[in-house]
Q: What sequence folds into this?
């Protein structure tokens, strides 16, 4: 739960302050593209949503910039995550606790977002420590990989 600071010079009325607060609290992530679900999530599926990471075309469907997936895609993602967690747990139980963060490019590594850097000891200057190279994939390519 956040409590964003709102610049009062940008919002002069209480309604504008509320609108700015909602805008800053808007979550990121994936939303189910089922129209009934979206209608319950955001009561006005004809405009840019103030509460969801989605904007709509005139026909009421999400546009290409929206972060949506259909029910089947979400089920595939859940199944993939479940298999991945089980596999990782089995590897840990077998004693495999190697430090192998991923890298998609020279600016973004798993270490960029990890709060445990001081604990894991990953250092490329140490022999045997290397990043796993990951290629960037489109959302469709990611789903195809998850299905494998």
A:
């Amino acid at each position: 739960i956040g409590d964003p600071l709102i610049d009062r010079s940008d919002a002069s009325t209480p309604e504008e302050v509320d609108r700015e607060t909602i805008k800053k609290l808007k979550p990121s992530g994936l939303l189910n593209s089922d129209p009934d679900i979206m209608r319950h999530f955001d009561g006005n599926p004809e405009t840019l949503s103030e509460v969801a990471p989605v904007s709509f075309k005139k026909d009421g469907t999400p546009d290409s910039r929206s972060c949506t997936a259909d029910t089947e895609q979400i089920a595939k993602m859940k199944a993939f995550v479940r298999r991945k967690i089980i596999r990782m747990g089995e590897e840990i139980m077998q004693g495999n606790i190697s430090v192998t963060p991923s890298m998609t490019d020279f600016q973004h590594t798993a270490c960029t977002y990890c709060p445990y850097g001081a604990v894991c000891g990953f250092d490329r200057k140490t022999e045997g420590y290397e990043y796993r190279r990951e290629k960037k994939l489109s959302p469709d390519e990611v789903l195809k990989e998850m299905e494998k």
